[in-house]
Write a structure and sequence with these properties.
Number of helices: 7
Distance between the termini: 53 Å
Number of domains: 1
Largest sheet: 6 strands, mixed
Domain CN hydrolase: 1-239
InterPro entries: C-N_Hydrolase (IPR003010), C-N_Hydrolase_sf (IPR036526), UPF0012_CS (IPR001110)
Family: Belongs to the carbon-nitrogen hydrolase superfamily. NIT1/NIT2 family.
CATH superfamily: Carbon-nitrogen hydrolase
CATH class: Alpha Beta
Number of strands: 15
Pfam family, one: CN_hydrolase
GO molecular function: hydrolase activity
CATH architecture: 4-Layer Sandwich
Length: 265
């Protein structure tokens, strides 16, 4: 299976619509790939809180329609990263979209864990309530967004729902890049799954982005890693290795669930 991770740069001098069109052009160049993945909130910037309300869109708005067409034109499964969704009741969400090679929307995932510690995204956006998986012909994707990477129980839930390839779309800051790499490998090892984690380049509202998109196999080996600048990271991987790894080293079978809470002594 061939995947392309588009580590697009966010330039504050580039309009949102211009960046949508540029992203579509980058996707067009990935014809022949099975799966293309974009970062978190690339239309506006993950830390551009002041622009969230002004740039918010309905689920089926400009970003949705341009990405649907881009998927169909390239003939690829497209994880279109995330954008600021405005729901019918006015609530904002950090929402990811997945499209089929025919341009049909296969899934929408609202980010569950909001970053900000009682400010920024954590207070400006609603929290998603549902785990989301997408069945491709070769593998089942489990969807996650940026800060979700720090919550292992979410990924275990995705694996329990059948995911063998975990997608993390992010706008991860450079100052915590070491955590990005470490956590991507940890999620792969503990879940015996592939992790495809794509970040963005450039600067989001003054916050330098880490870049360094990464693909990790079920043993925790790094198959490919990008640099800090805008880049398309292409990688070939074999989804059958997930089942083989779990059979060779069946650690997931030894999970013990439903344990009693600790007692006071």
């Amino acid at each position: 299976m061939r995947a392309s991770l588009i580590q697009i740069a966010v330039d504050p001098d580039e309009s949102v619509n211009a960046r949508r069109q540029r992203a579509a052009s980058l996707i067009a160049g990935r014809r022949g790939a099975d799966l293309v993945v974009l970062p978190e909130l690339w239309p506006v910037g993950a830390f551009a809180y002041d622009a969230f309300a002004d740039e918010a869109e309905p689920l089926q708005g400009p970003t949705h329609d341009i990405m649907a067409k881009a998927a169909a034109d390239a003939g690829v499964w497209l994880h279109a990263g995330s954008f600021v969704e405005r729901a019918a009741d006015g609530t904002l969400y950090n929402t990811s979209l997945v499209f089929t090679p025919e341009g049909e929307r296969a899934a929408a995932y609202r980010k569950i864990h909001r970053f900000g510690f009682d400010q920024g995204e954590a207070v400006m956006m609603g929290a998603g309530e549902e785990l989301v998986t997408v069945a491709l012909p070769q593998t089942t994707l489990g969807l996650a967004t940026c800060y979700d990477l720090r919550f292992p129980e979410m990924f275990r839930g995705l694996v329990d729902a059948g995911a063998g390839t975990l997608i993390v779309s992010a706008g991860w800051p450079e100052r915590r890049r070491a955590h990005w790499t470490l956590l991507a490998q940890a999620r792969a090892v503990e879940n015996q799954s592939y992790v495809l984690a794509v970040g963005s380049a450039g600067t989001h509202a003054g916050v330098q982005q880490a870049g360094h998109s990464i693909v990790v196999d079920p043993w925790g080996e790094v198959l490919a890693e990008a640099g800090a600048d805008e880049e398309v990271l292409d990688v070939e991987f074999d989804p059958a290795r997930v089942a083989a790894t779990r059979e060779q080293f069946p650690a997931l079978k030894d999970r013990r669930l439903g344990l009693a809470p600790p007692r006071l002594r």
